[in-house]
Amino acid sequence: MKLYLAGPMFTAAEASYNLALAARLRAHGFEVYCPNESEPINDKTRNDITARLIYEVDLAALEASNVLVCQVSEDSGTNWEAGYMDCLAKRVDRGRYFGVIGLATDIRLRTPPDPARTGAENQAGYVNPLVVGGLQGSLGVFLDEESMVARLLAVRDERER
């Protein structure tokens, strides 16, 4: 099963996490496209890499994948990719495109909301409800890697039958 790993990728910490997550998924036998590893678009010493080239390379990788792993964030590129895969899975070819699975690792999401604290004082994390609803309507959204990997393994087993 081919996975497209989508998520924030611009800081050293984000890039390191993405590479480690890609390695973990590969250890479970998944083929993974990780944009941080994409040679045609990530050589920052080149000045001929355009937004259109990035779009075309990532779109081709997305269309070659079965599942998009969405690291839940407010990254607009990630959310765009998730919506595109959701459309492929629901409107184009359900047999080829399986959907989107969410990984929401923000530790603030584990904090119960406190109605007595509003605004910045409420330490509970927030995820856009449209994104959450979309993930719930696809392959689900999980707060830890172990649960997400278990769901991916189940999806692979279901599809191989």
Description:
With 161 residues, the chain is of the alpha/beta class. It has one domain: Rossmann fold (3-Layer(aba) Sandwich). Helix content is 46%, strand content 12%. It is built from 6 helices and 5 strands. The chain has helices at residues 12-27, 39-42, 51-63, 76-92, 129-136, 145-160; strands spanning 2-6, 31-33, 67-71, 99-103, 141-142. Strands 2-1-3-4-5 form a 5-stranded parallel beta sheet. Strand 3 (67-71), helix 4 and strand 4 (99-103) form a beta-alpha-beta unit. It is globular and about 50 Å long. It starts with a strand and ends with a helix. The relative contact order is 0.16.
Attribute tags:
single chain, 161 residues, alpha/beta, Rossmann fold, 5-stranded parallel β-sheet, 6 helices, 5 strands, 12% strand, globular, Nucleoside_deoxyribTrfase, Nucleoside 2-deoxyribosyltransferase
Provide a quick synopsis of the model.
This protein is 46% helix and 12% strand.
